[in-house]
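Journal club side-thread
Mid-discussion, someone asked how the predicted structure for our own chain would compare to the paper's figures. Pasting it here so we can look after the session.
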Amino acid sequence: MRSAIRLCMSLSVLLLCFAIALSGSPARATTPACSVAEMQTFVNAHSWPMTISSTMMKTLTGSTATYCDVVAYLVTAGEGADKGLAGIEMGLPASGNWNQKFLFLGNGGMAGVLGLTSAPIAGTEGLSKGYAVAMTDMGHTANRAARIPVFDGSWQTINGQPNLPALIDYFYRATHQTVVAGKEFVSAFYSKGIKHAYYQGCSTGGRQGLMEAERYPDDFDGIIAGAPVMDITDQGLSNVNCSFAFMKPSSAWISPADLAVVDAAVQAACGDPDNHGLVQSPLACSLDLNSLVCNSSNAGKCLTQDQVTGLIRYARPLVTEKGAVLTPGFPITDLAASLPSITLASAPFDPANPSAWFAVRWAASDNGFKAMYGSAFQTIDFPIWFDKKNEAVVDEAARQKNLVLNHLGDTQFPERMAQFVRKDRKIIIYHGMSDAMINPFQTIQFYMDIATITPGGYEYLQKNARLFMVPNMLHCGGGSGPNSFEALIPLENWVEKGIAPEALIATTTTTPARTMPLCKFPEIATHSGLGDKGVASNWSCDPSNRDLLKMGAFGKLVGFPYTYLDRQHEGRNESRDGDR
C-alpha cells in the first residue's frame, strides 16, 4: 500500500512540474497573417533590417494553390561599399503545403524590377510544387519611363560618379544578402528548417548563379545558370561591336528576308541531316561566308559585299589593341529569328537619329555608356574599330575605364568554381547555341577552362557541374530547336538522390512538336537510325563522344582557341595560336 501511495505521489509531482513548466513557457509562435502589420511585427521581433512594403494573398493561375506574396526592402551593408537598399519579393505557400525547400529566382537585363510570376524564370513552377520562392531587384529600382526599363542604366552613377553601393549590390551583394535574409525569414515563418535551397536564373540570372557559386558556395545546394552574362566588363563593348558591324557602313544592314538566305546556307552546310537541319556543333562548321557574295550563279540567294563583311565582323572576336581575345565572335545560326530585335532592329541605322535604333543590344550599351560618360555621349563614337582581319579592336583607355567600373561583376573565373565543386554542390549550366544576345561560345570556353584545371578533366568535373548546349535555341528560349526543357527536377534528383542528369529532354515549340535529348558537354545527341527522329527515346548520349570539342573553320573565325584562365591578371590572353 505504501509503495502504491509513494508511486502516486511521485506521479503527481511529475505532473505538477510538467504543468508548471508548460504554464511558464512562452506559447509557440503562430505563423504571421498575410498582412503588412503582422509581417512587420514578425520582422521586428527578429531584428532584421527589413521593411515590409506590401502583402497579398494570391492564387496561381490555373491552380488552386495559394500563397502570401510579400514585398520588402532590406538594408544591405558591407562588401566594401556603403549601405544600400534591396527589394525582395517572397512567395510563401500555406504552411501545410510548404515542401521545406527554398527557391531563389534570377533577374534579366540590369534588373531593378520585382515580379515572382513574371521574372525571366517565373516562380510558378516552384510555387506549384510547394517551394518558398524569392527574388530581388538587385539593389535599385528601374526607371519605368525608360525605353526598356530593365536596361535602364541611370542608377549606375550619381552626379557623374559611380554609385558604388548600387553597383556592388547589382554585382553580388544584394543577391547574396537577400538570399540569406530570405532563408532566415522562411525558416522562422514556418518554424522549420529548410531542407534544400536552390537557385534558378537565365541571362543576368545566369550570372547571378555563377556569382553565387564562386563567392558564396554555401548559399545553395544546387544552381541552374542559363545563358550567363559572365563578362559584364566586355559585354557592353561586345554589344557595340556587334551593332557597329551592321552600322558602319549603313549599307551593311541585312534585312530579315536576306537573313533567311544566310540561315538556309548555314543549315545546308552545317546542319545535322538526322534532325531537320539543327546545327548541333556550329564551331565545327566550315562554311565560307564569302561564298554568300552575289555573283552570276547565286542571284536571289546572296548578299552584297558590304553585308557579307558585316556578317564576318559579327562573327569575329572583340580584341584588345595587342590582339588578345576579350569576347569571341557570335554564332551565325538562326539569324532571321534572333538578329532583328537584338542587333539589327527593323531598319538601317541613321547616324542623324541614333535614338531611333531600337535594337536591344544598342539600347543596353547606349544606356550604360550614357551613365558612364554623361547624357550627351554618343555611343556611335565609342572607340572601337575593325582591323584588316575584320576583328573589332577596342581602345585600351576606354577598355580600362570600363574595367574599373564593371570588373567586380565578372564571373568568368574558372579557378573560383573550385570551392563550389569541393563542397560537393551541384550546378547545371545551359546555353542556346543560337543566342545572339549573350555569347554561347563564352560559356563553352569557360566550361572547357574549368575542365582543364580540374584533376580528372570532364569526367571528374561532371560529378558537380554539367553544361548543356541547346542547338538552335535563342536567348534563354525560342528558336527552331528543342528549346523547352525541365531543369529543376533533374537538379533536385541530382542533389537529393544522387542521380546526375545524363541528358535534359527538350521539346520544340514549333509544330509539330519534336523531342530530343540535350547531352552533357562535350557530347552531342546521336540518332539510333531507327524510329521517328522527332522522338527523344530514339536518340542517345554517348559518354565517349567529344564532338563539341571539334573545331572547324568557323571555330577559328570566332577566335578559338583562347582562355579565361588567369583572366584576373593583366596581360591575359596577350597571345594565342594562329597567325597573329
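Post-session note: Residues 233-407 form one domain.
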